[in-house]
Prior knowledge:
Elements: E1 3-4, H1 9-16, H2 25-32, E2 35-37, E3 44-48, H3 55-64, E4 68-74, H4 77-86, E5 89-92, E6 98-100, E7 105-110, E8 116-118, E9 124-126, H5 127-135, E10 139-150, H6 152-157, H7 159-168, E11 175-178, E12 186-192, H8 206-213, E13 231-233, E14 242-244, H9 249-258, H10 262-276, H11 291-296, E15 302-306, E16 309-325, H12 326-338, E17 371-385, E18 391-395
Parallel strand pairs: 2-13, 3-4, 3-7, 4-5, 7-10
Antiparallel strand pairs: 1-17, 6-14, 8-9, 10-12, 11-12, 15-16, 16-17, 17-18
Helix pairs in contact: 2-3, 7-8
The structure holds S-adenosylmethionine.
Domain DUF6094: 13-199
Protein name: Plasmid-related protein
Amino acid sequence: xxxxxxxxxxxxxxxxxxxxxxxxxxxxxxxxxxxxxxxxxxxxxxxxxxxxxxxxxxxxxxxxxxxxxxxxxxxxxxxxxxxxxxxxxxxxxxxxxxxxxxxxxxxxxxxxxxxxxxxxxxxxxxxxxxxxxxxxxxxxxxxxxxxxxxxxxxxxxxxxxxxxxxxxxxxxxxxxxxxxxxxxxxxxxxxxxxxxxxxxxxxxxxxxxxxxxxxxxxxxxxxxxxxxxxxxxxxxxxxxxxxxxxxxxxxxxxxxxxxxxxxxxxxxxxxxxxxxxxxxxxxxxxxxxxxxxxxxxxxxxxxxxxxxxxxxxxxxxxxxxxxxxxxxxxxxxxxxxxxxxxxxxxxxxxxxxxxxxxxxxxxxxxxxxxxxxxxxxxxxxxxxxxxxxxxxxxxx
Length: 396
Ligand SMILES: C[S@@+](CC[C@H](N)C(=O)[O-])C[C@H]1O[C@@H](n2cnc3c(N)ncnc32)[C@H](O)[C@@H]1O
């Protein structure tokens, strides 16, 4: 249940913030100087797979004009609510589990969380690459990619990302700038997605690949006025499917008051999940004490009715990160020992490996502080009272 992996103070804070280094307003404004609709009267669909509070995508919409529909996804609950109030269609959850097709967005704003995670074989991988793998295909050929990424991603962390970008963008059409705010060493890569013949492998644009693979101290600044030859965002259609197979309390709270058809959507999500996962049968009779666990594991999701009412019940497991110092962990451990529970915890010395974005509250200097990140899976059961305006009645 408990594992601990501290990668150092910078990374710990990065994880807790879930990579929230939103695009600064000046960078967004200057990127807008590079964008214009291709056809003023046709609808454009623009997409941010990690929309944060929705600030950046809303600015792009306001710049492109009324024929622009915004799609976003955000994992953090509060930021989702904020995004939901700004953008046209927003989902709450992990965008790596988005159910949607390819080739529908006329523009993708790609500023995912930055950092390293480990796969099930304990091998590190970059988050930026994970998000790229899931969402690069959403842009239509000829559509515009705006990527805001740390420069060291390409020349130090993941050289293959440079190769991906050099095969993805139409040769000779791209531009690379330094972001207006230099705190996080971000660069802005902008260009058109290539049109490519079916079943062919795109040749890399060596010029772009070389540029990204070499640390550049003299990249141009983003323009501070509208350019004469901007990138033209093409007309694009809304995706036929855009959904997440999960229901969260934030989704219910936001969507239900606006959309009474939401109940049907919830049913579809549950049905879809039931189709995906085979229902299991118990080897022994299920006792009453098993029920909370079964619910939390999603094994008993669905509509439940008894004399007291009609409820939608949903179990979920949330991953929660706590960053402790050695001292605070020791205190917790003692409290746990008292309660005769001994979670298995590994302690690593926090090392400042450098290179990750630092929030202003975090020290930039190499740290000798021991930090311990505890990753805990918490089970929650939610129940909505269907006959009573979908009130959320229980969270355990
Ligand atoms: C670097 S911020 C970018 C925000 C916004 N796109 C912008 O440009 O200002 C990344 C955002 O991704 C969110 N995020 C992290 N992991 C996510 C996931 N698995 N699915 C969706 N959003 C995620 C974070 O909560 C954070 O708000």
